[in-house]
From TrEMBL:
Domain of life: Bacteria
Residue span, STAS domain: 38-86
Native species: Mycolicibacterium iranicum
Protein name, entry field: Anti-anti-sigma factor
GO function terms (MF aspect): anti-sigma factor antagonist activity
Length: 155
């Protein structure tokens, strides 16, 4: 038997300092964690009514970020349109060079075992694993700096 522990990025109600959007039976919220990392949390149900909007919401809020934590731990229902949203987010993150991780509730995990059996999406076991993964990826990124005549060098 696996013991799980819940760590929340957001409280059950998202504060008014954070941008939030109600769409169908879900609330999407975003919080800037650092200059390069943003967290998007979802509370409620992701279905045909709001799956597409979830993808667009994440896209809008990852434009300037290099890392994304997608917190789906408070999702009570996750339909096939939710998986389509995750695929859309995955393509967006790949195109924009955004590292990301998903922290999921049991309903989300259940759907991913069917729709993503090879584990292509960056599903983390818990929030601390997701953050550790993103920290590792940030540490391994090479930043290149133009140094004039000698060309590009690692900075």
């Amino acid at each position: 038997m696996v013991v799980t522990k819940t760590e929340r990025i957001f409280q059950r109600s998202i504060g008014h300092d954070d941008e939030q959007r109600r769409c169908g039976s879900a609330v999407f919220g975003v919080r800037s964690c650092s200059a390069n990392r943003v967290a998007v949390a979802v509370l409620g149900e992701v279905d045909a009514v709001n799956g597409r909007e979830l993808g667009r919401y994440v896209e809008r809020h990852t434009r300037a970020s290099k890392q994304l934590v997608l917190d789906l731990r408070a999702v009570d229902f996750f339909g096939s349109q939710g998986f389509t949203a995750l695929y859309y987010i995955s393509v967006h993150c790949a195109r924009r060079d955004v590292d990301w991780a998903i922290v999921a509730s049991p309903p989300v995990r259940r759907l991913l075992t069917v729709c993503d059996p090879d584990g292509e999406l960056p599903l983390a076991d818990d929030l601390s694993s997701a953050l550790a993964r993103l920290d590792r990826l940030a540490h391994h990124r090479h930043h290149f700096v133009w140094s004039g005549k000698s060309g590009w060098r690692a900075g």
